[in-house]
Amino acid sequence: MEFSRALVDVDKALELEPNHIRALVRKGNVHYMLKEYHKSTETFQKVLQLDPNNDEAKEGNQKVMAAINSTSDKPDEEGKRHAMADPEIQGILRYPTIQQVLKDLQEPPNGSQGYLRDPKIMAALSKLAAAGVIRLG
To answer: Which ranges carry the STI1/HOP DP domain (predicted)?
Structure first.
């Protein structure tokens, strides 16, 4: 199965019905297979907002987290290159505040603790970590 084609098909279905649970779960799974973990987890979270008891979305999220954790030990250069080509990731990395936080995180002692209390900064860093661009922890 060609996953990029599957993504086009599922996006067409979601244009007709944006909150279609089955289509959203499929989209999350396609992003997972493409190693677009940040998009996969975002999609599964949307499913869980619509249907908090959806087992497929819960399992999908667990698979994504396991994949992210398994790649945190060894960098996935192909995945990182793929993520860096994503306009959303590029946009996050262009934010001056994010650039400063990333710089501060590399210098001990971490002067970035104040930034880490900001939910928007943490969401951006989590997305970068899920995409494999940075490692947290």
So the answer is: 76-128
